[in-house]
Specification:
This protein has one domain. Helices cover 89% and strands 0% of the residues. It contains four helices and no strands. The two termini are 43 Å apart.
Amino acid sequence: MRTFRLLAAAAEAEGLRLKRNGVELGRRVAMMAAAGVCGVAALIMLHVAAYHLLLGYIGPAGAAGGVALIDLLIAGVFMLLAKPRYDPVAQEALMLRREMVRAAVGPGAIGSSLWRPAASIGGMIANILMARRR
């Protein structure tokens, strides 16, 4: 029963870790998408600014360039916000899952105590089948 409790604790810890990592991944994807939108808008505005700059040497190009600069600044802020963060709860859950799995399959666990008798019985069955086949 100890092994099953250890495996249940390991599964629960892994579920918590995956949930926490999923939330973090969703946040990062949203920030990267916003940065991508602002980056595309900045490129469009840079094209418009270059067009207007060539068109009249000043005037609307200054406004378009200013908007593009603001878009680039916003994209930079989103890129900074999209940096991965250290989540101590997720790390603790990962360590707990690893420890529970290690304890479940280590010495004293059901699996390790049943391995030798199961291997012996399997060997006897294999010998009987080979003897009958001859």
